[in-house]
Amino acid sequence: MNQEELSQLTDKELLEAAKANKPSPLIDAFFIGFLAGIIVYSIAANAWGFFTLIPLFLIYLFLKKPKQYEALKKELKERNLP
Q: Where does the pLDDT of residue 2 fall: very low under 50, low under 70, confident under 90, or very high at 90 and above?
């Protein structure tokens, strides 16, 4: 969500979005490591292809999640919500 979309949400919707989007660093780190292991195995087995790109995309999504949460926190702070 970008800043314009966040400003369109009501206070209740914004609080729900923040609760649903809260990152959990330990779980994210585990999955990023697991996906990196899949990529390393794929390279070692000379199996470049579509299944090597899927973990790369998923790692990108895991790394993008905290940035979205920061935007939510900024909007919550601007509205003086908990």
A: low
